[in-house]
Amino acid sequence: MLLHEFRPGRLLAGLTALAVAAVYAGDAAGSWTTPWYVAIPIVCGGLGLAGLTTWVTYRVRRRSARSRSSDRTGAPASSSGSQAIR
């Protein structure tokens, strides 16, 4: 049983941060030389991709929840102002 729902956008944002950390860790270890500006396109691209993924996931979940709904009228429970149930 899962404790929470899967969030792929947050996963991509975390992987982006790990990628930047790995690039600069390799630079600090002396394996390669990394200019300071390398992180900017990695972070911008990764966060943009994470945002797009979050938006797509939201739309898919919203569409699947709407298709599972038994009420297809789209009207509120009461439009006369009273709180009576249909």
Structural account:
The chain has 86 residues and is mostly helical. It has a domain at 8-66. The protein is built from two helices and no strands. The chain has helices at 8-29, 39-68. Helix 1 (8-29) runs antiparallel to helix 2 (39-68). Residues 76-86 have a biased composition (Polar residues). Residues 62-86 are annotated as: Disordered. The chain crosses the membrane at residues 35-58.
Provide a quick synopsis of the model.
The protein is built from two helices and no strands.
The portion of residues assigned to helices is 55-70%
Which secondary-structure class do the elements indicate?
mainly alpha
Query: Span between N and C termini?
Result: 36 Å
- Average pLDDT number: 87
Overall strand count? 0
Order of helices and strands: HH
**Beta-strand percent range:** under 5%
Keywords:
mainly alpha; elongated; membrane; 86 residues
Describe the SSE topology.
Layout: H1 8-29, H2 39-68
Helix pairs in contact: 1-2
